[in-house]
Amino acid sequence: MAAKTTLNAKNLESLGAQRLAELLIEVSMGSAAHKRRLRMELAGNHGSAEVAREVRKRLASIARARTLINWHKVKALKSDLETQRKTIAETVAADDPQEAFELIWQFLALADSIFERSNDRGGSLIQSFHQACEDAAAIAGSAKIDAHVLADKVFKAVQDDSYGQYDNLIAAMVPALGKDGLDRLKTLFVQWSKEPKDRPAEEERKVIGWGSGGAIYQDEIAGTHRDLTVRIALQQIADAQGDVDAYIGQHPEETRKAPMIAADIANRLLSAGRAKEALQTLDGADRRGWAEMPFEWQLARVETLEALGRAEEAQTYRWACFERSLHAGHLKAFLKRLPDFDDVEAEEKAFAHARAFPDVHQALVFFLNWPALAEAAKLVAIRKAELNGDLYELMTPATEALAEKHPLAATMVLRSMIDFALDNSRSSRYKHAARHLADCASLAPHIDDFSNIRSHDAYVAELKRRHGKKHGFWRLVP
Fold first, then answer.
1. What does the pLDDT look like over 303-361, one tens digit per residue?
2. What is the CA radius of gyration of the chain?
3. d(Cα 413, Cα 417) in Å, to the nearest integer?
4. CA 237, CA 119: separation in Å to the nearest integer?
5. Is the peptide bond before 371 cis (omega within 30 degrees of 0)?
6. How far apart are CA 81 and CA 129, in angstroms?
7. Which of 9, 76, 342, 419 could pair with 338 as two cysteines, CB 3.0-4.6 Å apart?
8. Do residues 471 and 430 make contact, with C-beta atoms less than 8 angstroms apart?
9. CB-count exposure of residue 135 (10 Å: 0-12, 13-18, 19+)
10. CA diameter of the chain
């Protein structure tokens, strides 16, 4: 049974309404966020209209603000935005979807003023606006907004998408727009694409940078941005309408041969039952500059071969791709299509291939991700001399994964990082190397046989012999 002083709803109820009200006032002193939350709760007692009024006031206040939003202010603003967004989507929309639609659009309009005075490096603020696009779509459906009116609003928003806040708006709005709305939206973007681009007089053109071809003008950048906006919008509309050819038509001819775009097009052709064209698109991709075609292209190819009834060829290609790249996705798909027991033998063959793979680090990543920790430990043991201790972003998680059941392999990995730091006099890493040495000491009692490497004490003695004068390191060693 919880103690009577435990902070939970039941215990707090015993304080009584008056005392709780006094405590809430006290707690909210000095906290604008807490005060806004309390006002919102009070407004809720008077119906959604009063809640909407409070939200509208807060959104207007945020829009008027001009102070810079430093990194330490982002969390508070994020919380404020989420409070307003959720109140619109969950409280106001339930009672008055028309009012909620106007409010969510007012919310989305905040983006420019916020991003103009902030640096959203973590992407937390933009997430609120992307979610608001989803909310706006759901609310539009509930409010039964006229399809043409909605299309016009979406078009205007995407036109002014300065910071990517409306990136997912068209896709989100597809159900609410319906066929008529999508047709209207497509017409608006096509018309915009045909409008002449504004070009100021030569003496009024503004140079914003320099490139290999000379000056870069502001009006040129604006024109390029418009072309890209139209292209992406029409691609999204084509996807929504299931019009593969329209989607392909929005890619300039010269870019369709890029492997990633070819894969993108092929996937859509495949979904439309046009596997033969999908394979032609993939085979026509430009391989120049690619030592190995990207996984997405390879995956599209095997799926296309399967769709064409060329399953054996698809399996051969999967195995060949795995042999070249050790990509687990190819191996898993290959094994899945084998008869019972054949997959065990094939997996053993794959592990043997990985152990001998030219890049030991790529092989280690494969075994860690599979996961096959015993194989990872075996790899480390037989190829420890090849480990690059500079790759701490790989070696650190490898150590953590191996430590419990394979302490000897974990020790070898730790030593690779210690040796790199000391052999190369990387003083910035000495504190990490000292910590790794302490980890080695912790692992040593769990190792019954150090095999062909020095024991922990012998390793420390050798470090002192070779690096005894690196006092910056030894001062950090416990």
1. 999 999 999 999 999 999 999 999 999 999 999 999 988 999 999 999 999 999 999 99
2. 31
3. 7
4. 31
5. yes
6. 9
7. 342
8. no
9. buried
10. 82
With bands split at pLDDT 50, 70 and 90, how would you rate the model's confidence at 1? very low
Measure the CA–CA gap between 325 and 265, rounded to whole angstroms: 24
Amino acid at position 420, single letter: F
Q: What is the total residue count of the chain?
A: 478
412, containing H or E segment: helix 407-423
Please name the residue that has the structure tokens 């150090």: 450
Q: Tell me the CB-side half-sphere exposure of residue 81, using CA atoms within 13 A.
A: 24
Q: What is the rounded CA–CA span in Å between residue 387 and residue 393?
A: 13
Distance CA 303, CA 335 (A): 15
Q: pLDDT tens digits for 24-42? A: 666 666 666 666 665 656 5
Q: To which residue do tokens 């309009």 refer?
A: 109
Q: Which of 379, 376, 358 is nearest to 367 (CA)?
A: 376
**Per the structure block, which two tokens stand in for 440?**
């080695």
**HSE value, Cβ hemisphere, 13 Å, CA-based, for 139:** 28
The full DSSP string for 393-405 is HHHHHHHHHHTTT
Distant-in-sequence, close-in-space partners of 38: CB < 8 Å, separation ≥ 6: 24, 28
Q: Which residues contact 127 (CB under 8 A, 6 or more apart)?
A: none
Distance CA 326, CA 355 (A): 11
8 Å CB contact between 463 and 418: yes
Rounded Cα distance between 151 and 129, Å, is 19
The two three-digit tokens of residue 188, written as one number: 């608006």
The span from the CA of 41 to the CA of 45, in Å, is: 7
Beta partners for 209?
216
* Residue 3 in tokens: 């103690």
**pLDDT classification of 407: cutoffs 50, 70, 90:** very high
Tokens found for residue 287: 């391989």
> What is the C-alpha to C-alpha distance for residues 318 and 298, in angstroms, rounded to an integer?
8
**Cβ–Cβ < 8 Å for 101, 55:** no
The rounded distance, in Å, linking the Cα atoms of 256 and 244 is 14
- Pull the structure tokens for residue 83: 């409070």
pLDDT tens profile 189-244: 999 999 987 666 666 656 545 555 564 545 554 557 888 899 999 999 999 999 99
Distance, in Å, from the CA atom of 299 to the CA atom of 294, rounded to the nearest integer, reads 9
Cβ neighbour number for residue 134 with a 10 Å cutoff: 15
Q: Name, in order, each residue with C-beta under 8 angstroms of 329's C-beta and a sequence gap of 6 or more.
A: 295, 299
- Cα 277 to Cα 273: distance, rounded to the nearest angstrom: 9
Give the rounded distance of the alpha carbon of 276 from its chain centre.
33
